[in-house]
Structure formats: structure tokens, C-alpha cells
Amino acid sequence: MRDFGYERAIGPEQAVATMLAEPDAVFLGAGTNLVDHLKLGVTAPGLLVDVSRLPFDDITERPDGGVRVGATVRNADLAAHPIIRARYPMLSAALLAGASPQLRNLATTAGNLLQRTRCPYFQDVTTPCNKRTPGSGCSAIGGYDRDQAVLGASDRCIATHPSDMAVAMTALDATVRVLGADGEREIPLVDLHRLPGAEPERDTVLAHGDLITAVDLPALDVATNSTYRKVRDRASYAFALVSVAAAVDIADGQVRDCRIAFGGVAHKPWRAHAAEAALRGRPATETSFAEAADAELAAARPQRHNAFKIPLARKVLVATLRDLTEQGAR
Length: 330
Fold this sequence. Notes:
Layout: E1 5-8, H1 12-21, E2 25-28, H2 34-40, E3 47-50, E4 59-61, E5 67-70, H3 75-80, H4 82-87, H5 89-97, H6 101-104, H7 109-114, H8 165-171, E6 175-180, E7 183-188, H9 189-192, E8 211-217, E9 226-231, E10 242-251, E11 254-263, E12 270-271, H10 273-279, H11 286-297, H12 309-329
Parallel strand pairs: 1-3, 2-3
Antiparallel strand pairs: 4-5, 5-8, 6-7, 6-8, 9-10, 10-11, 11-12
Helix pairs in contact: 5-8, 10-11, 11-12
């Protein structure tokens, strides 16, 4: 492991300024992902800027009826918060589906959003990986690809994003608040993460020094009838093969509104815009749900060993929407 410096930030502006002055500095929150990468040699920063004690650990109601979640709010606290459980049950369910209780007690909102792929080749420094070393190649293409992307991949990278929380927040139309060199700005969460394209090393649209301070959840009536369903190889502490965050509003047997996002299938949380468009105004039936899934998955391009993800995603979405329809009718 490379020697590195450590500095505890005393304020958000100072944290950003310190980062901007050090090109190889990185922010340190809880460290549940970063520390692993330091040990593995995946990353070797010269300076860690500790932002874990900045005053961003509140969950507050907004005047517009939405909720602001501070960047350092712990995953366990967010999942258990009564407002989140009542207004955004898919988010609470997604958080509880991720990691272990010990990690949820430590991991933060911003850190969860910014965690990097768990592709085995990315974490193995003895293998080529364009995300870790641009231009070196993608070992997953033609290699072990069972867990990799079927949507939005490129010939440079087929890795998937590991966050459960980010999938739910994407479906909820969340907005990320960022402090950077030019002051504060807002980024729709659906636009925060990038598809790999020709630059898979760039996970997000954030610039060096950009600090996430909060995530805003809008007032969203449809979100009260929502859930998160995760399919994985074992019952706990496993990343999604396929996951679905879904919310649906049914009136007179018709889908009045819906929000859908997939996890485990792409390089970023995948907002299912085509499926949503295919559902709105349609009968709330399994036929409509299946047609909506097909509309979204038509663009899927599997690798040699992960074609099963396409019918799996279809079945998970149909089952989730069916259950939500029955739940909403009670």
C-alpha cells in the first residue's frame, strides 16, 4: 500500500479547497469501499480528506413536502426513519437489502452512491481492467461475465453498479446536492452515474473536488405504494443479479402513474423510462406488465453467460408490479 496523508475536514468549503489543491486526494467517509480498495491496491491516493464529521447527518422535511437526506446519514438510520418507511418504502427496503447490518450501521448516503463496481477483474490488480487502468482492456469480456451488464454496456466495460439504495433513489426522482469549485449545484440522480462508453474509468459526472452534501427526495404520492425486490445468489450479503425498485398508482383498474428502476443489469442504476411509458394509462394486468418489461428489455445485449438476466428481469418486474397492484387494492 502506498503511503498517504490524512486530513480531517473542518468544514465543507475547506474540504473542497483541500481536494482542489491536491490532484491525487480523495474524500474519506465511512471507508467501507475505499479501505478495501486501498488494501487491494485498486487505488493509491496521496491524501485522504476525512469528511465523515461534517454536519450532514440529518434527515429533514422540506417545505415542499419532500425530504432532504444528509450525505453522512448512515444507511441503517435512513432505512429505519419513520418518514422514509411511510413515504418511500422502496428506499427503506432497498437499504435493508444491501450489505450486512454492521456495514449499514457505518455506510453513508454519499458513500453508498459513490461506491465502485464489485467486478472481480476491477478488484484484481493482476488482470487488465479499463476502469482501473484505462486502455488496458476488459477481462470480463470473454471471461467470467455471469454477473455483468446486459443494458448500456460498451466494448470497454460491462461492469454493473452495486448500489441498492441508488436504484431506489433513481426511481424516486431524487436530486443530488453538490458543493464544488464553482459553488453549489444540483444534479438529478438519474444523471449522476455514467454509462461506460469510451471512458469507463469515469463512474460519475462529478469533477475532482465535488462534494455531495445531501440528496433531496421529492414529494411523490405514488411512492407510498412502492417496494424493492432483489434477486441474488444467497439470501444476504450478496449483490443483485437483478433488482427492481417500483412504485405504482392504480385507479379504476388503470395505471395512473408509476416509477421503475432496475439494478444489477447496467453500469448505473437503470431508470426504466420505456417501461413506465408503456404502463401509464394501461390496464393494471400481468399482460400490460409483461409488455412494459419487454419494451424496456428490448435493448438488452447479453454476454455469453448472463442471458438469463433478461427473462429474470422480466419476471421480477411483472411479479413486483402484480404484488403492488394487489397491495394498492387492499
